[in-house]
Structures are given as structure tokens and as C-alpha cells.
Amino acid sequence: MKNILSTIYNFSIQFNTMANNIISTSTTTVIVILFSLLLAGKSQTFSTSLPRSTLQLDKQNLTRLHFFFHDVVGGPNATAIRVATAPITNTSATGFGAVVMMDNLLTVGPEPNSTRVGRAQGMYASADLSNMSFMMVQNYVFDEERFNGSTLSILGRNPIMSPMREFPVVGGTGVFRFARGYAEARTVFINETNGDAIVEYNVYVLHY
Ligand SMILES: *[C@@H]1O[C@H](CO)[C@@H](O)[C@H](O)[C@H]1NC(C)=O
Ligand SMILES: *[C@@H]1O[C@H](CO)[C@@H](O)[C@H](O)[C@H]1NC(C)=O
Ligand SMILES: *[C@@H]1O[C@H](CO)[C@@H](O)[C@H](O)[C@H]1NC(C)=O
Ligand SMILES: *[C@@H]1O[C@H](CO)[C@@H](O)[C@H](O)[C@H]1NC(C)=O
Ligand SMILES: *[C@@H]1O[C@H](CO)[C@@H](O)[C@H](O)[C@H]1NC(C)=O
Ligand SMILES: *[C@@H]1O[C@H](CO)[C@@H](O)[C@H](O)[C@H]1NC(C)=O
Ligand SMILES: *[C@@H]1O[C@H](CO)[C@@H](O)[C@H](O)[C@H]1NC(C)=O
Q: I need a labelling partner for 15 at 20 to 30 A (CA). Which of 34, 85, 183, 206 fits?
């Protein structure tokens, strides 16, 4: 009998301790929840969920752009100019490490005097030790009426000896906000004497 009473007594002590723990746990929980609510209220000031219609993102357009890129590296009016080299650039088979800044003309036809559509501003650099290949970082800025001032940003690998190279469109501004897509580049003319080149571009862009 004494044993049973003692067991019950011990049990009730344990039970009370558990209950106290639960109460203090739930008090802590309430405090944590209140605090989180305060923080949540605060975070809404920098992040807001919006319906897609706010920015007319309900209908997506696919646009194809076709133009020619004039890489003028020689002569007094060069638009692509080497700005840096590595100690191994001159002895490397691929000119590794050479960095060229460009502000190249874009036109509707392959002739440099055909209608201008914009410029390709950015840089390319020899980035492959064994196979001739450039890393291209280009911002196309257009001045054709509907696209005036809009830009497309292109980043990609350019194995210049391949007949066709493909670069990802990583974004855009203006008409091209939220842009995604790709560009196909084909060299249509190269002057072996001075390195000037004309490259045909077909760019497929999804935008809104
Ligand atoms: C999307 O396409 C529609 C229909 O062709 C055109 O009216 C609209 O201007 C285009 N929007 C953009 C941003 O190009
Ligand atoms: C360079 O540009 C100037 C001014 O536009 C022009 O007069 C000249 O003929 C150009 N030179 C070459 C080699 O294209
Ligand atoms: C590489 O060669 C060019 C001439 O072709 C020269 O101007 C330049 O100084 C050379 N660079 C190095 C690092 O030797
Ligand atoms: C462009 O230049 C070529 C010669 O290179 C000339 O025959 C043609 O008439 C010019 N076109 C325009 C629109 O100026
Ligand atoms: C690089 O060139 C070698 C031959 O020189 C070729 O076997 C290899 O596939 C090329 N690699 C790439 C990534 O193009
Ligand atoms: C393009 O926009 C600039 C100003 O941002 C303006 O001066 C120029 O006339 C515009 N060109 C066309 C073709 O609309
Ligand atoms: C190639 O470049 C050289 C040197 O600048 C020039 O004399 C020649 O006319 C160019 N050839 C063509 C087809 O443009």
C-alpha cells in the first residue's frame, strides 16, 4: 500500500513538472509567434507579392531580330580595341588572355552603310587555352523606333571557327524587360589582312 501511494505521489510530481514544462513551452511559443508576426509585418515593407497583371506580364511575345555586326579591329576607325593581354598571350596558340572592348555597329544588311539598328557594346576575351574561343559579354543597344533605347544582354562562349555559334540572352531593358532567349551568330565576311569581320545575328527573344 505504501509503495502504491509513493508511486502515485512520484507520478503526480512528474506530471506537475511536465505540465509546468508544457506551460512554459507554450509561453515561449506565444512570445516567439508574436515576435515573428512583428518581424513579418516589417518584412512586407521591402517585399510585396504582386499579380502578374501589374506589369502586363500576362501575354508573352516572341521576337526575332536579324542584323549584322561589324567588328572593325583595324585602321583609324576601329570600333573593337584590344585593352589587355596576359604574359602568355603572344605565345599562346589561341591568344589566350587578350581582352577587347567594342562598340560595334549593328545594321539591317551586311553592308556597313546599310540602315543602322543599334550598337553592340561590351567586350570579348580569348578564354580557351587549346581551342580558339572567346567569352562574349555584349549589351546590344537599339535605336530603331520601337526598340529605341531598349537593350539586350548576351553572355556566352564563342568558338569563332565554328560556322554557327549560340549565345544565351540573359536579360534586357525597356521593351525587352524580363527577356530570355538565344542568339545565333554566323561570320559572313572576314578580312584576313586586318581581322575585320561581319557577323550575321539571329536573335530569338521572349519578352512581355
Ligand atoms: C507584343 O505583341 C503584340 C501583338 O503582336 C504587339 O501589339 C505588342 O506591341 C507586342 N509587345 C511588345 C512589348 O513588343
Ligand atoms: C574614318 O572616319 C572618318 C569620319 O567618319 C571618315 O572620314 C574616314 O573616311 C574613315 N576612315 C576609314 C579608313 O574608314
Ligand atoms: C605582344 O606583341 C605585340 C605586337 O604584336 C606587342 O606590342 C606586345 O608588347 C607584346 N606583348 C607582350 C606581353 O610581349
Ligand atoms: C553603300 O556602299 C556601296 C559601296 O561600298 C555603294 O555601292 C552603295 O551605294 C552604298 N549604299 C548606300 C545606301 O549608301
Ligand atoms: C578542341 O579541339 C580538339 C582538337 O584540336 C577537339 O578534339 C576538341 O573536341 C575541341 N574541344 C572543344 C570543346 O571544342
Ligand atoms: C531615340 O531616343 C532618343 C532619346 O532617348 C531620341 O533623341 C531619338 O530621336 C530617338 N530615336 C528614334 C529613332 O526614335
Ligand atoms: C582588308 O584590309 C586591308 C587592310 O586594311 C584593306 O586594304 C583591304 O581593302 C581590306 N579588304 C576588304 C575586302 O575590305
A: 34
